[in-house]
Design a protein that fits this description.
18 helices, 455 residues, mainly alpha, Fumarase C, Chain A, domain 2, 6 strands
């Protein structure tokens, strides 16, 4: 019986595979093999014992069905793996799980999974960046109305709007890069973190195991890896989800019929917008992103609670973490790739953007204020002059230009200066340069990152 929507509706297979039962088992077996390898290297167990364990692990002789069969009897998940591995070994059977505890395996395996997941998420974000760059390049000077408080403000360009998004995504990539060494960590020091069962080479064995697995290791641990690491991972993912919701919300708002400047792609041949209103073209993907982002962020609360353990460890973190790390990773990958899909096929209504920008003369009030100030009027006086003219226009249903002329603006600036100040194209400032800088920064950072992600 399938219960979770992740099994039939949400998430991509590449990410879900990382957190599948079979993959988790294989990773845990690889941790056991790495432990045997390190212990053999430092003379704690014979090399032939390690090689036997490695052979069994590499040949996939341990089956998930057998592990579950054992667990149904002994009621211990990790020990079920240990027993299933042991029964397949010959000379290595006396050295499986030698000197370690369950959470040496669990937490080191989780670190490997997180590493794989975070690499996919970083790759997703770079894919999103490339899509944003394409839009920015094509729209550096595409005029549109800026909006603050839900009201029209000074003109901007679509390229500038998306440069803000591009810069935000790059900061997420920076956070991932900076946090890797803290997030991706295992431990191999036994039930209370002393490493006593591993003898005097315990710290070297731990370092060797984690090096084999491609993860960092705890400096000092209890029975488990510090949950501040998982909390940081999920905090970064939560931050990313906020950005995805922010971007999706902007698409939803600008797709409203009374605005209709941007819109999701809609398959007119096949897609159904509503079960009752056949005409509907709803921003369903953007709405889905918002919904999943809100769910994703909720998973950090139980992980905060998991960071509080009794003494060297209790079991209160165990069950909840079977949800938290997989779910946030799968949902993050899902919403980032969906957001990239929305942007990749985005309908951009340049004509409507331009029409609105040129029709609403009030968006040029800042431009007029600065023109008056440059003409010699003190800035505060120019602000008040433009404010009074605006109120006159609102109250008497006049155009902004008519109100300015009625208040005698041509006494202070020429008609040519007034005409230039009323042209939105003349008041987009450094928008192009900002776009170019955002693209350059993103492309340079991607080159820097690629080696680390695919290392």
């Amino acid at each position: 019986m399938i219960v979770s929507p992740l099994d039939y509706r949400y998430g991509r297979e590449e990410m879900k595979t990382i957190f599948s039962e079979k993959t988790r088992l294989n990773i845990m077996l690889n941790v056991e093999s790495a432990i045997a390898q390190a212990e053999s290297y430092y003379g704690l167990i014979p090399e032939k014992g390690y090689l036997d364990i490695k052979k069994v692990v590499d040949s996939n002789e341990v089956q998930l069905s057998r592990v579950k069969e054992i667990e149904s009897s002994i009621n211990h998940d990790v020990m079920s793996i240990v027993e299933a591995l042991t029964e397949k070994c010959t000379v290595g059977k006396n050295y499986v799980h030698f000197g370690v505890t369950s959470n040496d395996i669990n937490d080191s395996a989780s670190a490997v999974q997180i590493k794989k997941a975070i690499n996919i998420i970083a790759s997703d974000l770079m894919g999103l960046n490339r899509t944003l760059i394409k839009i920015i390049r094509e729209n550096m000077e595409t005029i549109m109305v800026g909006r603050t408080h839900g009201q029209h403000a000074s003109p901007i360009t679509l390229g500038l709007k998306f440069s803000v998004y591009l810069s935000e995504v790059n900061r997420h990539l920076e956070r991932i890069q900076e946090a890797r060494k803290r997030i991706i960590a295992g431990k191999i020091l036994g039930p209370v973190g002393t490493g006593a069962a591993l003898g005097p080479m315990a710290l070297k064995i731990q370092e060797k195991v984690c090096d084999i697995l491609g993860i960092s290791h705890e400096m000092a641990s209890t029975q488990i890896v510090g949950r501040d690491r998982y909390i940081e991972y999920m905090s970064i993912i939560n931050n990313i989800s906020v950005s995805m919701e922010k971007f999706a919300t902007e698409i939803r708002n600008l797709q409203r019929p009374e605005i209709y400047e941007l819109a999701e792609y809609f398959d007119s041949e096949n897609q159904v917008g509503s079960s009752s209103m056949p005409s509907k073209r709803n921003p369903v993907v953007s709405e889905n992103i918002v919904s999943l982002a809100r769910l994703l962020r909720s998973f950090i609360i139980p992980e905060y609670e998991a960071g509080v353990q009794w003494h060297e460890r209790d079991l209160t973190n165990s069950a909840l973490e079977r949800f938290t790390i997989p779910y946030v990773s799968i949902l993050a990958d899902d919403i980032i790739t969906k957001m990239t899909g929305v942007f990749s096929h985005l309908y951009i209504n340049k004509e409507e953007m331009k029409r609105r920008a040129y029709e609403d003369q009030f968006i040029m009030s800042e431009s007029i204020t600065m023109a008056l100030a440059r003409g010699g009027m003190p800035r505060q006086e120019s602000h008040e002059f433009v404010r009074r003219s605006s109120m006159l226009a609102y109250e008497n249903k006049m155009t902004f230009m008519e109100a300015l002329l009625k208040n005698g603006i041509t006494r202070f600036i020429s008609e040519k200066a007034l005409e230039d100040a009323m042209n939105p194209q003349n008041f987009i400032g450094s928008s192009r340069e900002i776009c170019e800088n955002a693209i350059k920064n993103s492309e340079n950072f991607e080159k820097f990152l690629l080696g680390d992600i695919y290392d």
